[in-house]
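task queued by scheduler; priority normal; single chain, no ligands, no partner chains; default sampling; output format set to structure tokens
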Amino acid sequence: MLNIIWAAFFILSLLAAIFHSACGNWQIWSQMLNSLFDTAETSFKIALNLTGILCFWLGLMKIAEKSGLTDMLAKALYPLFRKIMPEVPQNSPAFGSIVMNIAANVLGLDNAATPMGLKAMEQLQEVNKHKDEASNPQIMFMVINSSAVTLIPITILMYRHQFGSLNPAAVFIPILLATSISTLVGFLATAAYQKLNILNKVVMAYLAAAILFVSATAWGFYALDEQTKAEVSVILSNLIMMLIISGFIISGLIKKLNVYELFIDGAKDGFKIAVQIIPYLVAMLTAIALFRTAGCMDFITRGIAIICETFGLNTDFVPALPTALMKPLSGSGARAMMLDTFQTYGVDSFAGFAASLVQGSTETTFYVLAVYFGAVKISKTGAALPLALLADLAGITAAIILAYLFYQG
């Protein structure tokens, strides 16, 4: 699947460039080539910047593993994992890493989530019988990861504040609901595809607890005034980050471990992973850049607008579509689209509000897939991509619907 999509990006870009040329735009060829080379360089820089983060967090993860902290966390979700990942052995350290990754995603701690997710994927690979093919647990983990619920969309709140929004935190609750829908759809679709029996007391209890937690969080923030919401989001994110870092180190000291040496050992693993993912990043990001530069994204956006107008549907959401279409492909690209919408229509316009929700509704699926599966050298990703894209579609659709329900212009 990934092979076909990657090749399709290039072929469709070529056809689009030929069309541009036929219309007299011969500059498209140099623009595409420049985009290709620039993105190849940027891909390497992304991996290089990721190296430090990987080294730091995998160093801390090594301390957490040896101190037994990740095992303690895994026990809380172990009954659920046994139902949705039955192929993974009971004593696998992957469960602890998965819990840490999910927790980091939920709290909006992106720079912690990626290293922990890579560690989890590596540990799942150890029990994968077919090393070049994604296993069911890896597919389930990837789908949940790429559609993870985000409680605190701190970066979006920050950008809305910078653009002078009168109500930066107005997007908090709809983003929480949109990401929850994305995760739920992704989980249920993957469970159905893998023929997992989720209609049991264990899974239903965890789902009910998750829904209750999300609802309570939404209600709690809804009760706060707008300025307090923004302040609490920032303070809570930073506080939780420091507590996690300190907790890892303290847990190692309590166990009388050499935390410094353990950190160095884990950091070395982070450097190896960073090097391994470079080719996969270059391959995927250059194809996406070519697709965007050739005008294929604009063509799809205009097509959707025309269809909506034909059926007499409201098209106020159309300016947010570039962000929606770019989000599964490129995080930085989607962010640029969102900021452009702020600049063009205003951060507190309906388009700006909808773009904010779309930006926070789901993850950059192609990036996550390239990095996670690339780190363990999996070339056959199976149903991971279509299932993740289904979750993306659910999240983005929910974001647009919620924009109409929550916007107060």
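post-processing summary
- The chain has a mean pLDDT of 83.
- The chain has one domain: 29-406.
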